[in-house]
Amino acid sequence: MTQKWHFFLLFTLIFSSSVFADEPSELYDIYQLAENGDPVYLISEANYLAQKQANPQSWSAVLPQINFSAYRTNFDQDIETTSTSTQNYDNDGYSLRLTQALFRQNDFIRISQSNATILKAQADFNAAKHDLILRVATSYFNVLAAKDNLDFNRLEYKALKRRLLQSEQKFKVGLIAITDVHEARARHDQSAAQVITAKNQLQITLENLRELTGKIHNDVKPLISDIPLLPPEPANIDAWVDLALNNNLALQASKQQMQIAKDEVSIQRAGHLPTLDLVAERSHSKVGGGVFGKRTTDQTSISLEFNLPLYAGGRTSSKTTQARYEYNAAKQQYIQAQRATKRLARSGFLNVQSTISQVRALQQAVISSNKALETTQAGFEVGTRTTVDILNAQRELFRAKKDLARARYDYLLETLKLKKAAGILSAEDLKKINNWTRL
User: Fold this and answer.
1) Structure confidence at residue 429 (pLDDT)
2) In contact, 22 and 218? CB cutoff 8 Å
3) Between helices 2-15 and 105-172, what is the axis angle to 10°?
4) Strands 84-103, 65-80: parallel, antiparallel or unpaired by DSSP?
């Protein structure tokens, strides 16, 4: 009775599932949730919107500057001549000043620099979107792989349980030795532990999805088993490298960063140049008393203000030198980004081809492992194979099936990574994969 209850409880623990499970989530639906709920992506969006303000801020320096000021002063004045008199009066007025920059080289260059800043921010934001697509797909396929691992471990557990019962029965009638029973029980107990571990791993992968979307996903839709294995198109590795050099978002961002640093050199060098402003001012002053009596003054002036910096303690030269070094650093970063882009495009192309070959090889491995198990079972029936041989054959079959399922997901991920390296990844790629989910 104790052993029966042990098996019952173990079976319940391993195969229990929620009766009220939610409808499985689809890949594209999860992506849309992540697009609106992933903090990492939303941070990049906010940073992009913030960086877009660089352009109006740079233009503000060359547009008219208008300032208005007003004042009112009360005077309590003692005047001593042949006699002493005290006067109390008010002095008030206002001033309206308009300044228009005519020549400020550094401010004009900052407009160009702000355009490069926005282009870089846009490239960074688009790269963040590509990264989100890849993170969602990776998390989704990790869930599917964990589900497959759990399903295969459960099937293996069932098979090992049947094998253990058969071994116990055959031992009772003297057909096999006790060592075969011990081996079957050891494999059975190991399989039970693996099922529990697989269940825990599945929950962890679901938590990773929850981190992306902020919502609980109890299940996700699996993919069909015969997803099409499409090789890279065009089937030329150099064509993918050229595509990446023209479209890779990280490379574009690095190029704009180099332009920003180059503009900064010109901005700092412009610190040696003169500035010229047009200034128009209108002022009004009203004095209510004093030595010269009451008076009102209105004044209008238009002037050109010329300023030539002669010496600033070497600060301008030092800032220019610093900017040159920073430009050299940005230039080297761009060269490194070019090399990394070529490497990612080439490795992505090769990885897609490799995973296609791996899937096909594992498909054949499943067929071969299945035939090997059938042959081993037949040999066991006639006494040429042992229980251990069957257990090993079963393990190889389930291992091949798990590896095949994982290889399919790796193929899809490598395809997405190749498109990301080439700068052509989009949400439509997830829609296409979403069409390969089971109904």
Assistant:
1) 95
2) yes
3) 160
4) antiparallel
Establish how many alpha carbons lie within 13 A of residue 268's alpha carbon, considering only the half-sphere containing its beta carbon: 19
Helix %, strand %, coil % for the chain, to 5? 65, 15, 20
Long-range contacts of 45-52 (CB under 8 A, 24+ apart): 45/125, 45/128, 47/121, 47/124, 47/125, 48/121, 48/122, 48/124, 48/125, 51/117, 51/118, 51/120, 51/121, 52/118, 52/121
Residue 204 CB contacts under 8 Å (≥ 6 apart), including other chains:
146
Which of 63, 62, 91 is CA-nearest to residue 76? 91
- What is the reported pLDDT for 80? 63
Structure-block tokens of residue 427: 């949400």
Beta strands in 311-424 (DSSP E): none
- Residue type for position 384: T
CB 66, CB 96: distance < 8 Å: yes
Q: Do residues 34 and 136 lie in contact, with contact meaning Cβ atoms separated by under 8 Å?
A: yes
Domains defined along the chain, listed by start: 28-62+104-273+309-434 (1.20.1600.10), 64-103+276-308 (2.20.200)
Question: What SS3 state is found at 426?
Answer: coil
> In order along the chain (439 residues), what is the average pLDDT of each group of 10 residues?
47 45 80 94 96 94 93 71 65 92 94 96 97 96 93 86 82 80 85 91 93 90 90 95 97 97 95 94 81 77 94 92 97 97 97 96 94 89 79 86 93 97 96 85
**Is the Cβ–Cβ distance between 103 and 279 less than 8 Å?**
no
Q: Are 142 and 220 in contact (CB under 8 A)?
A: no
**CA distances (Å), 169 to each of 155, 157, 190, 334, in order?**
21, 18, 21, 72
Residue 72 vs residues 78, 199, 284, 294, 325: alpha-carbon distances, Å: 20, 79, 12, 15, 52
Other CB atoms closer than 10 Å to residue 357's CB: what's the count?
A: 13
Could you identify the residue written with the tokens 């019962």?
165
Residue type, 50: A
